[in-house]
Amino acid sequence: MEANKENTYTAADYKNGQSVRWCPGCGDHAILNTLHKAMATLGVPPENTVVVSGIGCSSRLPYYMNTYGMHTIHGRAAAIATGVKTSRPELTVWQVSGDGDGLAIGGNHFIHALRRNIDINILLFNNKIYGLTKGQYSPTSDRGAVTKSSPYGTTEDPFIPAELCFGARGNFFARSFDVSLDTTREVMVAAAKHKGCSVVEILQNCMIFNNGVYAWLSDKEERENRIIHLRHGEKMLFGKENEKGLVQDGFGLKAVVIGEDGYTMDDVLVHDAHSKSYFLQEQLAMMDGHELPLAIGVIRDVEAATYDEEVNRQVADVKAKKGFDTLREMILKTHETWEVK
């Protein structure tokens, strides 16, 4: 990702003027506006930016961008984004997927994009429901969720996107809420600056089919007690007055009140998003807001070799050694041709 140092962009430069067709109150509106602002902060020209989506409510987003965009097929956004980045490595590529599109039919592409570490930015909108197809339960719906396709409650446990990310050897994972505009912008910018495959999970409300699914977490009165905003190099503090913190408890984590039961600020852990070992980072990402606060912000950010750079380096090496630049030259030089009569 290279910014244009000569021009200064505003959010308006990334809007194309199309009428936005999401339901009133849908969290997608806030995410779209925040993405426009994040792109302006990054300063990558619109003509050097590509937004790829699959199928679903979230996948309408490319229509509202003044960038190149591809509205592709169900679950295949990561495959298309990989092809774009590999063939045009100078472009900044964003992938937009919902929890159904990205983790059900697209789950295989999701984990392999992470394993390969292709340099794309995946925005995963997680509303725990299929919205576009009218309310079936999704791979992230909670056990017991009553939906159009589970009228008596689901009988299965959900995927946790962070767990998939770490299991697939992902090097960047962040999380935010649709209502936390500043945090969402912060993690989007960090994801784009990360060299490699980045995943930003955005917890998002569906007004029609799953309204209030995150209300108990995002409620203004309780938010500070149920959510912890992690920042690299800073103490893991939360609460209305930052009076609570996370400490090591054996091989796990424990939430404590500083000054009680002998715990002091010195006991509170410092967040290390750059640690190559993801043992602690995965524990932080798996906290759900019940016994331990839900973590938002950048949880893991580790540099590693990227798929697109390695592929293009390999192609350049082979071209140099073999002495050809095109497929036609390769065929002629190897003399592996024949005539069909």
Shape, principal axes of CA atoms: globular
Which ranges are low-confidence, i.e. pLDDT below 50, for 5 or more consecutive residues? Answer: none
Number-wise, the strands total 11
Structural class: alpha/beta
What do you see in this structure?
- The protein is an alpha/beta fold.
- It is globular, with a radius of gyration of 22 Å.
- α1 crosses α6, α2 crosses α10 and α3 crosses α4.
- Strands 2-1-3-4-6-5-11-7 form an 8-stranded mixed beta sheet, with helices on both faces.
- The model has no long low-confidence stretch (mean pLDDT 94).
- α6 links the parallel β5 and β6.
- It contains 11 helices and 11 strands.
Please give a quick description of this structure:
The protein is α/β, with parallel strands linked by helices and 341 residues long. It has 11 helices and 11 strands. 30% of the residues lie in helices and 18% in strands.
How does the SSE layout of this entry go?
Elements (H helix, E strand, L loop, with lengths): L26 H16 L6 E5 L14 E4 L5 H11 L4 E7 H7 L1 H10 L4 E6 L34 H7 L4 E6 L3 H13 L4 E6 L11 H4 L4 H4 E4 L6 E2 L5 E6 L2 E6 L21 H8 L7 E8 L5 H16 L4 H8 L7
Parallel strand pairs: 1-2, 1-3, 3-4, 4-6, 5-6, 7-11
Antiparallel strand pairs: 5-11, 8-9, 9-10
Helix pairs in contact: 1-6, 2-10, 3-4
Main traits of this protein?
341 residues, alpha/beta, eight-stranded mixed beta sheet
